[in-house]
Amino acid sequence: MALQCGITGITNVGKTTIFNCLSNTKGETNAFAFSASRSNIGVVQVPDRRLYELEKHQVTEKIIHTTVEMVDIPGLAKGSNKGEGVGNKFLGDIRNTDALIHVLRCFDDESLPHVDGSVDPVRDMETIDLELQVKDLESVEKKAERLRKAARSGDKEASNSLSVLERFREHFENFNNARTLVLKEEEKKVVDDLFLLTMKPVLYICNVDEKSAVSGNHYVDAVKKYLEGSDAEVIIIAGKTEAEIAELDNPEDRAAFLSDAGLDEPGVDKLVRAAYRLLDLQTFFTVGPKEIRAWTIRKGMTAPQAAGVIHSDLERGFIRAEVMKYNDFITLGSEHACKEAGKFYIEGRNYIVEDGDILHIRFNV
Questions:
Q1: Centroid of chain to Cα 325
Q2: pTM for the model
């Protein structure tokens, strides 16, 4: 599934450092603002310990993780909507993503000057929000202009759409993001074609120094206070420390480094799983002696749709899905034991696949 998370934020906050920890595609990092000329795209494995638990009960030749695409978008600044810095080009890159990871600078470093002269993650958050709101306002006003002529001629649908667009206009002019406007489902469809930047779900990353990797600091506290009452998730990552861990090839050395930092796993692993949830994705498994594999689907997909993720022929010729629940398989230890315990289910076309389901698809083409 070609879904993307865009990593965004003010210039010089550590976006590319974090991206490099996640992806085999490496972006260039330096201390100069607006030095990047393009976005970096990388495919990132989604960490899932369940794959290795499954291997304990089914010997296999290989394990294949599911993946998600990450786009490292060069830093924005005040006036980006007018082309300041690298401006409009990268606002366009944001439009093409499905969700945003907003990196906030929550560390002091005199050798890395802040573009606005001081470290203030809440101000930086407001700066990015404003740039995206202005761009969204432009999109809404352009569509409203196109609809006014039809509305004046008595087109009821155009009039209703104009009413919704007017609510969006007022919302943006009050410095609010599109995702916070309460709408009915049919009203949301009015702006579906605009791909509004501030409609995208957002995950916030507080990039801290090493000593703040576990508990955060006063900058993180300010971010959390600002976001109180929203459903936004905040993750603390020490980007520089994570970069040092990522350079270690030996798993034991990585484990020792993490332990010294007071961490039980790399923060970027938490970030990837959170991004996966942000995209409204879930995982099902196929298990066999050749491979144990994780597959990505959107929540709410049916068994035939999930089969289609494996191969279009499986969806086209779908007969049934043989389903075991992950916890049942791990507890009972085998497919045979699941059958004996009545935990092996035969499901048809209307079955909604759940996270962690182990599927075997029967099909005929």
A1: 26
A2: 0.85
